[in-house]
Input
Amino acid sequence: MDESLAKIRHERSVKDFPGLRLEDDEYVEFAFSRAKICLLMIFMGTGFGLALVLLAFLLVLMGQSMIDEMGQNFLFIILAALVSAALIICIIATRIYNGNKLFITNKRAIQMVMDSIVSKSVNIIDLASIEDASFRQDSLLQNIFHYGTLRLSTVGDETTYTFKYSDITGEQLKAVTDLISAAKKRGRKKKAAEEE
Output
């Protein structure tokens, strides 16, 4: 690739992804996040929970016509607490969803994993160290909504990095494997040049 184009792509990547610490000649090729169906499930679960709480509240109010003012205030406090809890859980789940990313640059794979609000990890793998990249779908739901698990296996200690609930396409997987092959070729050329 032309050096001026690589520099422009690097500057664009630094601007678009300020949290990444990219090397001088490194730029982002792909940015993967979790499948949109996961976000939809979060919102549907929250909506279902809120509907259940409101339905239960209405049933209690309809069944108890003789509730005094103090009892009604107590029920409203419980309703407010349950609705608040459902919304807080939705916000936390959405934050965790947004905290899971996989970036493929021209040199490395950078995986940001967030399992909970307090549990975060960042894995960085040189593309030349990756032996195998594969995408796996294990259920009918995954096939219907086109998401699955992306696996990157490394050379040597055979560590496998997984990115679950990814909606990577076949073309993107092929492009990632092409980037891995190109990184390996660059590594072999550099090693051969150093040996001479």
About this structure: The mean pLDDT is 87. Residues 38 and 118 are 20 Å apart (CA to CA). Helices lie at 3-16, 36-63, 69-98, 140-145, 170-195. The first helix runs from residue 3 to 16.
